[in-house]
Amino acid sequence: MGENTGDNPNMSILQRIATSDVPLVKEYGLPGIIGAILLAVVIPIMLSSIFNKKGKKRAVQADVGGEAGLAMRNSRFSMLVEVPWEGATTMAALFEMASKKYPRHRCLGTRKLINREFVESPDGRKFEKLHLGEYEWDTYAEAFSRACNFASGLIKLGHQRDSRAAIFADTRTEWIIAAQGCFRQNLTVVTIYASLGEDALVHSLNETQVSTLICDSKQLKKLPAISSKLQSVKHVIYIEDEPVEAEVLNQMKHWTTFSFGEVEELGKTSHTDARLPSSTDTAVIMYTSGSTGLPKVYTHDEPTILLLSLNKSLSDGVMITHGNMVATTAAVMTIIPKLGTGDVYLAYLPLAHVFELAAETVMLASGAAIGYGSALTMTDTSNKIKKGTKGDVSALKPTLMISVPAILDRIRDAVFKKVGEKGGLTKKLFDIAYKRNLGAIEGSWFGSWAPERMIWDNLIFKPIRSMLGGRIRFVLCGGAPLSSDTQRFMNICLGVPVGQGYGLTETCAGAAFSEWDDTSVGRVGPPLPCCYVKLVSWEEGGYKISDSPMPRGEVVVGGYSITKGYFNNEAKTNEVYKVDERGMRWFYTGDIGQFHPDGCLEIIDRKKDIVKLQHGEYVSLGKVESALTTSNYVDSIMVYADPFHNYCVALVVPAHQALEQWAQNSGINYKNFDELCHNDQAIKEVQQSLSKAAKAARLEKFEIPAKIVLLPEPWTPESGLVTAALKLKREQIKTKFKDDLGKLYH
């Protein structure tokens, strides 16, 4: 009796309303609120004409050099942005100046580990559970001091000034401290994913001739097994996030090994003057994904960036300069409104990915607080969180975060599932609120009357927002296409704008970025102020800048964010990087885009045949098709992958003789070949044959078409579906069989 149950997560929404601490409910009661809701429904309809939204020009045409095409620049700037403020021309200068601007503000935060335990499941498997405390912070002045000490310590332990250091660790405070320490001595940092396999790890370390390897204790355990293969490593610095066994260190006696704290202390007691870089010096060598490499993958079960091999070789490392990094930083700072010391950023994606590294650099330049977490400790119910312990978002209460579509999709699905389970009036109220807010956002006749939205937000959506700490004001999504349904869910249920970013490692994450007040879906916004985005006609693919209603073509990015090229691969660099007659550097992305009338970019296709699925898995369509053509039932095949789904499908023109022979042997009756192609047994037989061919070629599960359709008519040059050399014309095939493809995804 008298117990406050308003925070009980198991209560229905109506129970929450009745016991809520929201002032409106306490003052007017539930009947009054229902009356207010009814009033809120009527008034917006009467005043809907007041709320019509007007578009604005977000990008304008630019006069630039290089290959003929349609170039656009951000409409808010007449010149490209190069630095966030005068003097901040390098990563080292930017961090030093930020530490002087915000010396006492919180900078880098890590949760205190109280204890860890292992819980055994009924099937005998053990799961780690963490009891984490509150965040403990280094101020900007303290973080800068640590970076200076680490820089001095590196030199004192014997690291040569002209050699490289690699960071092989999960995202954490020490990652940034180590990187900033390297930058102060003009040492190039090689970034390596913590989940990288042994062969790829050896390749990247040897190719870049790394002499010092900085890793966490988990990665340290991997080194003895590969130590004989590492040609250049001389020093190993390990982060003491877990106890390190003496046996592991004894196996690495041929290297100089120091703990991270020891290197800091060495530098603190034996200072070495900084050797600061210039803007054109290489800050980072970052390995990226590609058709011949190891693409980054967001798995469904564990939304962290993993690596999945398309073949045996690692793709090329991209050389990112200090100037590239600060240019992207300066540009993004102009996009996020009121960015500053009041912001708190949740960092959990891998810093070895340019997306996260660029985001954290923006935060450091803005004086924001960066709190470190992980995908497995993010919420109160995350896999590694001990029951009764707060998740990262509950402890940190961030205002800003970046995400990948897979994580946002899971949040959306969890909310809809929970609401569906409640059913009844709870679900009806949720559906009404969702529909009304959707109409407000999209500018429909429902209008956007503020009092109505306030009521819905407080009564329906407030519990949902607490899932991410309750203070999120902006989310940036990247890494794969974000579905319009998930974007609208974030807009409505979390009440925040969602910016979609478009960029590549080769453009230092900088290309396009949707602005905070743009509520459209499916677009990636105007060019960032640090670069131009140009569309160049691709005649072979049928995309031209003269297309109507919108110009289309290959996306080419030029400006200050364009990187130096690929490490030790001049041929590939010259293939996709071009310098025009004005000295502007351009990168040819291979993506196909179109410009909307307001200047915003939309990515509509890929020049090459590599597609990223919903959870980030890369599918090389040509490779899959090549494997599947070994089936004796295949005459022609086109594999299709929709980036908003996690599986691919295929259009198959079956070999007449082979399929008819099977039908005869199986006793299948049919009038003509068209009817046979629609026979369920025939479709099943061909699909089983494709699966067999796929397994023989060692394709991954997501590469095997989950559904197929059999097409009776052959593809010929005369039909316009293949070239004279019988190469697929994907766009023409997709257009002709649009309905068939649509059915395969429903």
From TrEMBL:
GO MF annotations in UniProt: 4-coumarate-CoA ligase activity; long-chain fatty acid-CoA ligase activity; trans-cinnamate-CoA ligase activity
Reaction catalyzed: a long-chain fatty acid + ATP + CoA = a long-chain fatty acyl-CoA + AMP + diphosphate; (E)-4-coumarate + ATP + H(+) = (E)-4-coumaroyl-AMP + diphosphate; (E)-4-coumarate + ATP + CoA = (E)-4-coumaroyl-CoA + AMP + diphosphate; (E)-4-coumaroyl-AMP + CoA = (E)-4-coumaroyl-CoA + AMP + H(+)
Keywords: Membrane, Transmembrane, Transmembrane helix
Cofactor section: Mg(2+)
GO CC terms in record: endoplasmic reticulum; membrane
Enzymatic class: ligase
Keyword Transmembrane helix: yes
EC number, UniProt record: 6.2.1.12
Record keyword Disulfide bond present: no
AMP-dependent synthetase/ligase domain sequence ranges: 129-297, 317-567
Biological processes, Gene Ontology terms: phenylpropanoid metabolic process
Residues annotated as transmembrane: 28-51
PANTHER family according to UniProt: LONG CHAIN ACYL-COA SYNTHETASE 8, LONG-CHAIN-FATTY-ACID--COA LIGASE
Protein name as it appears in the record: 4-coumarate--CoA ligase
Record organism: Oryza sativa subsp. indica (Rice)
Lineage: Eukaryota, Viridiplantae, Streptophyta, Embryophyta, Tracheophyta
